[in-house]
């Protein structure tokens, strides 16, 4: 119970050159096929043992959802087969096919029956489903008035009302709010302890690492990597952020292990009124030593070069460090520094701002914003701001004391007999 | 073997099928004030219109019978059963498109959907036909034991309509023209069947063509039972039975072959 075995699985969609060619193919089979095959999945082979948790990661369009559809039997494979043993609860996309005109309660019965429960069983579970979904009186309203979050709440509550042998969860959960997500993960963890096999699709590698022992990295319809979650997730992140435009500055100073070229950013956002330009931003671990990987309690030196297009007075240099979820962790600026505030920066001049801080972040990947701000404006305006301009990673080492959370602070523990 | 498998699957999902029927019936009228009364009002309006136009204005007569209700009974015998037939077909041709949301997200035997269609249409037909039967009894026109012959006829009709409906429904997923075309075709089919008029008014050479319309023999049989209290001439229904069997075989084959591809197309 709870095994998933996928062998040589492949899925291709038929593409016809025009509307009539399908008809001619049906009516005149002897003339051969006129369609071409568009392969979205090819040569997929893997096996999930009972009780294992496997995360499926990959960029949009890599074939993750198609793979789940083939495994659950919603879509038919073109080649190979997906064999599953045990009762499956699958949450593919939003709302598991809820009928918009039926009430939440009616949909619960319908979905429950499709999952193989009897009316009496569902009636018995109804209170618990309602309690878990927490959508209040909406349960008796038609699903078309639900928000997407409510649909997911209800769908997850039904799908997991009875512990399945195999639980398959698509990205759907991402729609729920944080509190509900936490609740879902608690339930998933609970199922896992009791031996449910989990197949989980997400973009969030941290969740995969936390929840799954193994991961499957899909790239353009093929298995790029399958194995221990940590290794596969790293491979995925590398391909995700692995731009070709590795900065010159960084490669020149490349010294192990301070610089990881995979930490390049392709999602920078910049704006400003154009009175100044932040030309380059880089990090150093000690003077003149470029780095983007830091150990716990290393120094992080942030430098950026600013060229002024117009003469300005009363500005501040600022930066902010965020997690990839956008949680602001640490920001500072020079608004309190008189020699910056009072100084006039001449048009055409170039300066370098330098911040130094002691690393107190937990291991993980972080994003950095830099800006030059005019504080006389109301509201203050940015002369130039670069958001998510630089990524850096904090690695775990002997000084890492944090087990959960976002910051790392030196900590000791003793147990004393009293 | 395959057919047994299908029956088995249907049995396993009977809970889902029955509650789908119930819910669909409820929601059809849940936002209307008169509710299920509309099931009755619709055909009633049609019967009224046809009776006025054909029997009063155009003086259509049913030969050999001189009862006040003769034409109305003649009309109901054809129009109610035809309504049952066309409801199954028109709903079945859209059933897969309509439930695309469900089909794409949940793995369940798709064959349940046409079954739900038949049962739903059956509920509507039962309501209206029961009322019609009550009317027959009250007006003293109940045909007696001959009435029982209606049930085997209905059975053949259901098999014929759902087999045809499934085929049209599957084709409609791949070629949307099929549904559009069939709606027009159904209009012609209705008027080419002696429902509002009597077959005897047709010229001899055209009347002989009616044997090629499998629904004509069936409707004539219903009219015979309800109006003339005659047992059907069973041999005239043989073509319909044969066509139904063939359509069933074609429908099941088409379904098994294309069900997988259908999901990709929705």
Describe the structure concisely for a colleague.
Chain A has 418 residues and is α+β, with helices and mostly antiparallel strands. Chain A has helices at residues 19-27, 64-72, 104-114, 119-133, 148-159, 178-193, 205-211, 229-241, 248-252, 338-341, and strands at 4-15, 36-48, 53-57, 79-84, 88-91, 166-169, 197-201, 214-219, 222-228, 269-271, 276-286, 289-290, 293-294, 299-308, 312-313, 315-323, 328-333, 344-345, 350-358, 364-374, 381-394.
Structure description:
The complex is a heterodimer of chains A (418) and B (266). Chain A has 418 residues and is an alpha+beta fold. Chain A has 2 domains: 4-238, 3-Layer(aba) Sandwich (Rossmann fold), CATH 3.40.50.300; 248-394, Coagulation Factor XIII, Chain A, domain 1, CATH 2.70.50.60. Chain A contains 10 helices and 21 strands. Chain A has helices at residues 19-27, 64-72, 104-114, 119-133, 148-159, 178-193, 205-211, 229-241, 248-252, 338-341; strands at 4-15, 36-48, 53-57, 79-84, 88-91, 166-169, 197-201, 214-219, 222-228, 269-271, 276-286, 289-290, 293-294, 299-308, 312-313, 315-323, 328-333, 344-345, 350-358, 364-374, 381-394. In chain A, strand 16 and strand 17 (328-333) form a beta hairpin. In chain A, helix 3 (104-114) packs across helix 4, helix 4 (119-133) packs across helix 5 (148-159) and helix 7 (205-211) runs antiparallel to helix 8. Chain A is globular and about 80 Å long. Chain A starts with a strand and ends in a 24-residue tail after the last strand. Chain B is mainly α and 266 residues long. Chain B has one domain (38-265). Helices cover 74% and strands 0% of the residues of chain B. In chain B, helix 3 crosses helix 4 (70-98) and helix 4 (70-98) packs parallel to helix 7. Chain B is globular and about 60 Å long. The two termini of chain B are 29 Å apart. Chains A and B meet through helix 1 and helix 3 of A and helix 2, helix 5 and helix 11 of B.
